[in-house]
Amino acid sequence: MIRLAIAGLGAVTQNIHLPAYAQIQDKLTLVGGCDVQPETRVLVTKSHPTLPLFENYEEMLRTAKPDVVAICTPPFLHREQCLTALRAGCHVFCEKPLAESLDEADVIITAAAAAGRQVVVNSQFPYMQIHLAAKARIGQPDFGRLLYLHATQTFRPTPQTEGTWRREMTRRLGFEFGVHVFELIRFFFDEDPVRLCAHMPNPVGSKSDVLNSVNIEFAGGRSASILLDRLSRGPERYLDLRLDGEHAAIATSIGGELGFEAGLHTRERKPFFAFNFVKGGKAVWQDGNRSRLLAQDGINPFASSTAYHLGGFITALAQNTLPRGTALDHRKTLALIFAAYDSAEQKRWVDLAPYLASGAKNTLAQP
Ligand SMILES: NC(=O)c1ccc[n+]([C@@H]2O[C@H](COP(=O)([O-])OP(=O)(O)OC[C@H]3O[C@@H](n4cnc5c(N)ncnc54)[C@H](O)[C@@H]3O)[C@@H](O)[C@H]2O)c1
């Protein structure tokens, strides 16, 4: 049993981490939590009355003596809190994005190697059932190679979604949400891209970026495009991907859906009817107008994929093997994001090799 303590008890802890831990309670014991806000601690006490809660992070580490610390605070605190946890001899399960710059990420990676501890980042979207199922089809004879991927989000921010630290960020959309999309693109293509070009217009003059349009090229002409749109007044779509293979396509979407579709496929003059009910997300196999459901996620895919990812991390620690999603791996995702912001500012294509270069290596944890 791993002893786990949590720093930061806000939205991600309450909506994602605590439900995830409940799904893998045979693997971990929750030994403490800390938050600087008294009202947040009161909220967590209601659902976890026996969990020791602290105001101070260091005091929690000293008193609760966790094996793993989950860092669920805003990104500007991740570097310092990761380093403090490593100094205390803990492994770290840090919320995305790991750090606010590649230099900060390198400091964490170096400190983890020196301490003989693992830092894994909860960039968990690849571990949703829909994305695992899609990945499993890539390279199969009926799908072939993945040639092109398009990702799109249309989201209307509210005062709640932009509360506190998020509204202070100038690089908000690509850095804080887009990190999931860049991570998925790396997961599906399974190789480093060569260059990218980003356009991030801000016609409403808001402090944070509101529209990210990014084109990414891989060797041999394979490519991906991303459109993250917080300007549209149209219907919200949390995240839709379309993966174009040599012989078929796969469409994935996160977000509940209940609907009846009817219409006419004009080219074939054939009517169609479909009834859709999906709670958390779906992956659909497509071959022209023929389609079939490949996989679905439950009501909270963010929690179930976190449980999958953290469960894998705990197993890797027990077996002293390399976990997935290490800080060094996540650094490559951050590299694409920072390159995209540079590309948008400089209004040009950016070669990715200098961003992706890192002298560090993944190392196994010291028992
Ligand atoms: N993986 C995902 O799907 C996902 C989803 C949402 C958020 N996140 C990430 O989780 C992190 C937190 O986001 P959130 O939405 O929960 O933010 P939040 O503002 O709701 O919660 C952050 C909490 O940290 C607390 N805090 C601040 N300073 C602290 C300190 N020094 N010590 C202890 N606690 C402190 C705050 O009081 C707050 O309760 C961010 O990095 C965000 O990007 C990840």
Q: Terminal Cα separation, in Å?
A: 15 Å
Could you say how many structural domains there are in total? 2
CATH fold call of the largest domain: Dihydrodipicolinate Reductase, domain 2
Number of strands: 17
Structural category? alpha/beta
Compute the gyration radius: what is it? 21 Å
Low-confidence regions: none
Tally of separate helices: 10
Main beta-sheet strand count, sense and barrel state? 9 strands, mixed
SSE string: EHEHEHEHEHEHEHEEEEEEEEEHHEH
**Which word captures the global form?**
globular
Q: Which strand order spans the largest sheet, edge to edge or round the barrel?
A: 16-15-12-11-7-10-9-8-17
Output the CATH homologous superfamily of the largest domain.
Dihydrodipicolinate Reductase, domain 2
Q: What's the pLDDT, averaged over the residues?
A: 93
Strand content: 25-35%
Strand and helix layout:
Elements: E1 2-7, H1 11-23, E2 28-34, H2 38-47, E3 53-54, H3 57-64, E4 68-71, H4 78-87, E5 91-95, H5 102-115, E6 119-122, H6 129-137, E7 146-154, H7 173-189, E8 195-199, E9 211-217, E10 223-229, E11 237-245, E12 249-254, E13 257-265, E14 270-278, E15 281-287, E16 290-297, H8 301-319, H9 327-346, E17 350-351, H10 353-356
Parallel strand pairs: 1-2, 1-4, 2-3, 4-5, 5-6, 7-10
Antiparallel strand pairs: 7-11, 8-9, 8-17, 9-10, 11-12, 12-15, 13-14, 15-16
Helix pairs in contact: 1-8, 4-5, 5-9, 7-9
The chain binds nicotinamide-adenine-dinucleotide (NAD).
Residues 7-12, 16, 34-37, 40, 57, 72-75, 77, 95-96, 122, 124, 164-165, 176, 302 line the site of nicotinamide-adenine-dinucleotide (NAD).
